[in-house]
Write a structure and sequence with these properties.
Layout lengths: L7 H23 L6 E5 L5 H9 L4 E6 L2 H10 L5 E5 L12 E7 L8 H10 L1 E17 H13 L18 H8 L3 E14 L2 H5 L7 H9 L2 H15 L8 E13 L3
Parallel strand pairs: 1-2, 1-4, 2-3, 4-5
Antiparallel strand pairs: 5-7, 6-7
Helix pairs in contact: 1-2, 5-9
Length: 262
Amino acid sequence: MAQMFASALGYERLVGRWSAKLAPHFTEFSGLRDCECILDVGCGTGVLTSRIAAATISARVTGVDVSEPFLAYARASVRNSRVAFERADAGALPFADATFDQSLSLLVISFLAQPSQAAGEMRRVTRPGGTVAACTWDAKGLELSSIFWQEAERLDPSAGSRAERPRHSNSQGQLEQLWRAAGLHDVVEVPLRIGTEFESFNDFWEPFLLGVGPQGVYVKELTVQRREALREALRERLLPGGSDGPISLRASAWAVRGTVPH
């Protein structure tokens, strides 16, 4: 899924508006506290990191990610003396045991090759009694993605093979099982639901032209004629009858939290 993380600006246009809506719900569920040190694992463009910093007064927040373009974007956009960004792999965090009071991760776990290793690392670097929490999109819960691939497959039956959908940690019970296997206590998993507005069809369509994510890569590789056919199919699906106007889409995610045992 390298294309998903190739362009920070493109990712923000395509997914950032969803992450920004989800982050407040996730931090509330996670029991975010104004503690000493908080870790954001897979911080991406800094959406969750920024939210944590804004919701606390004194906490030092560290965001880690493997993507240098994303880290550069985050450093430029999140200007706060209490925030730092580092390049690090979720499965091998470069911190000593019990470094943080809380460790959070937004929309990352389902993309990792070894989610259990990341869960174990988040527990390891969190102090006893501290919270470890994560959130992932439900397997069929991102309406933007579902509608895109449904229309793409209707025009091109082979399109589904390009979707690169995550295959783990995105259905009910999977995050809970992962957290319990990591040895966390008081594990709770809940659904989170949000909605997002698009001002017009172009507001919905244009981010796909940036070549980011499986959808963007698929659109970029289409011929002009096939790209226009997909555009019109999506327009008719979202705005039947040819008129333009606002579009409302929904998304659902699964969130989990647990406590590091004493």
